[in-house]
Amino acid sequence: VPHNAYFGAGYLASLQVNAALAPTVPFERLFLDLEASPYHDLVVAKDGKVKVPDGPGLGADPDMAVLKKYLVAEPTVHRA
Question: Which residues contact 51 (CB under 8 A, 6 or more apart)?
Answer without folding.
Answer: 41, 42
